[in-house]
Structures are given as C-alpha cells and as structure tokens.
C-alpha cells in the first residue's frame, strides 16, 4: 500500500473492481500458503528419519513462507478490506518491517538452499566436514540478516495524514525528494531480487557444468569398460563427477523449480516498481495502478507455491 501512492495519486479514491480482485486473490493465497507450509512442517515433525540438510532448509523456507503469509499477505489483505490502515503508528512501522523481513528471509533461505546444493554437487567432500553445523550457520545468519536489513522500514514508514487538513491517516512512506523513492525501490530490488538472482544463476551454472561432466564421465566409463576397476583411473582423478546420485539430482531439480517459480512471481513486481520510480512519464492512472496491483498479486502467490513443489518431488 505504501508504494501505491508514492507519486501523488488521488489519496481518496481507488479502483474498487481491482480491490475486489485483490481481496479474493490475497484470501486464497493466504489460506493455501498456510495450509501448504503447515502441512510440510507437520510432515517433517512426524517423520522418524533423521532430518537431512535439504529437509532442514525446506523446514526453514516453509517457516519463512509462513512469515510472508502472516506478516505480508494477511496485513495486505486486511489493508485492502479497510482501504486505510487503522492502527497506531508503532503498529504501522512493525507491519512494514515484518513485511520486508519475510521477503528477505524467504528469498535468502532459497539462496542458501541453492548454495547447499552447489556444495553438494560441485564440492562433495566438503559435505562430509561439519555439514550440519554449516547449514545451521547459514540458516541462522539468514534470519539475522533479514531482521537487520529490513530495519530501515521503521524510519521510512509512519502513520501520516494523507493530505494536510484531510483528517484521514494511512501508513505511508516518506522520502527525501527527489531521489529518496528511487533509492529505496532500487535498494529493495537489488537486495531482494537482482543480487539473489545473480547468485542463483552462478550456482546453477556451476551445477549444470558438474552434471555435464558427470554425464560425460559416465559415457566414457561405459566405453572404457572395466578401466576403473583395473586401476587405470587413479584415486586422484575421483571428483564430484563420480558422486552425483539420483537423490542429489532430484533435489537439484526441485530447487531449480523453486527458483524458477520465484523469478516468475517476483520479476513483474520489481519491474513495475522500478518503472514507477525511474520513468518520469509514469502516471498513477487506472492502467498503471492496475499493473502495480496485478504484479503485487503475482508476487504474493510465491509464498504458496513452494509446498506444492516439495510434494511433486
């Protein structure tokens, strides 16, 4: 809601048809996200097997998605129903902090999961060295960094009169003109979307290269027959190419689909947000407002996608 009125649109009006669509989609998203992620957590809680590193990351990604559901999707749903924020100033700031914290946590938990798959595929020997401890460090650092990186929300958003003398208040962002809004949106876009996507692309580039070497190695091994058993392939030649199991490949495929869903859901949102602050000709009329609303709805769907991806794989 804060980004929807940054550039001086009419504060007393909204497109009610779009608002009804938003309420419906956000309601469905919230219910599906809660049911899906709680089901994943319950399934892990009831399992008798020792939790693997992958399951540990899935657990915390589900927790991060629940943070998004309860502290981003649900407040936004209530906000769409009431149109204005009805609450004290401190609650306005806390809600905005938790909304962005959930985005950071969900995004970087996915990044850490991908980094773990990169280590497992490209550096398999490292997975034998305090792998569980390293996983916990990655997870705890993600939660702490998400909490810290979202703290600027306390200074940017406040309960404010939407127009001097109107007597109507809302939870709005306040920026230093003329560059404040651009700096804020660019920071959020870079921090939550561009940097993670670059890291993810690099990881999957290395992973694909290792898998390609694995396939090439297996073909060569088949043609060579029993060369490895006869000692022609020495100990020093053994690498990650020989250790990629079907289970690892399955987790790589699952993580890739999670990443793909993230990019599909969030790319339109950040594109529209950057367009709104960097295009001087951007006007907050019905068409642009609809584009902003629809891109935000698509982004919210990401919190309910992941559990169903887990179930497929």
From TrEMBL:
- Please provide the Gene Ontology terms (biological process) for this protein: cellular response to hormone stimulus; positive regulation of vasoconstriction; regulation of systemic arterial blood pressure by vasopressin
Chief subcellular location equals membrane
Subcellular localization(s) per the UniProt record: Cell membrane
Ranges for domain G-protein coupled receptors family 1 profile: 36-310
Bilayer-crossing regions: 23-44, 56-74, 94-115, 136-157, 184-212, 256-278, 290-310
One GO term in the molecular function aspect is:
vasopressin receptor activity
* Pfam families, per database record: 7tm_1 (PF00001)
PANTHER family per UniProt: NEUROPEPTIDE RECEPTOR-RELATED G-PROTEIN COUPLED RECEPTOR, VASOPRESSIN V1A RECEPTOR
- Protein's name in the database: Arginine vasotocin receptor
* Protein's organism: Herichthys cyanoguttatus (Rio Grande cichlid)
């Amino acid at each position: 809601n804060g980004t929807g009125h940054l550039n001086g649109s009419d504060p007393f009006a909204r497109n009610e048809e779009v608002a009804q669509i938003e309420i419906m989609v956000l309601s469905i998203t919230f219910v599906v996200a809660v049911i899906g992620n709680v089901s994943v957590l319950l399934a892990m809680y009831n399992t008798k097997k020792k939790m693997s590193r992958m399951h540990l990351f899935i657990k915390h990604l589900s927790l991060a998605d629940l943070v998004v559901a309860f502290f981003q999707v649900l407040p936004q749903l209530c906000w769409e129903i009431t149109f204005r924020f009805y609450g004290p100033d401190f609650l306005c700031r806390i809600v905005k902090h938790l909304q962005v914290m959930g985005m950071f946590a969900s995004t970087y938990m996915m990044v850490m999961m991908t980094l773990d798959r990169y280590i497992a595929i490209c550096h398999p020997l490292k997975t034998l060295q305090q792998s569980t401890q390293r996983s916990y460090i990655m997870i705890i650092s993600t939660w702490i960094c998400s909490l810290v990186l979202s703290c600027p929300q306390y200074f940017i958003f406040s309960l404010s009169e939407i127009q001097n003398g109107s007597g109507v208040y809302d939870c709005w962002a306040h920026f230093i003109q003329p560059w404040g809004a651009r700096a804020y949106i660019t920071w959020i876009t870079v921090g939550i979307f561009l940097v993670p996507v670059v890291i993810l692309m690099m990881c999957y580039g290395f992973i694909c290269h290792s898998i390609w070497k694995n396939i090439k190695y297996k073909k060569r091994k088949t043609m060579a027959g029993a060369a490895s058993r006869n000692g022609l392939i020495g100990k020093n030649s053994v690498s990650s190419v020989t250790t990629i199991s079907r289970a690892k490949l399955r987790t790589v495929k699952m993580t890739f689909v999670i990443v793909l869903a993230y990019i599909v859901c969030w790319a339109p949102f950040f594109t529209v947000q950057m367009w709104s602050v960097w295009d001087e000709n951007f006007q907050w009329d019905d068409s642009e407002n609809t584009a902003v609303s629809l891109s935000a709805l698509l982004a919210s769907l990401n919190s309910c996608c992941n559990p169903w991806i887990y179930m497929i794989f």
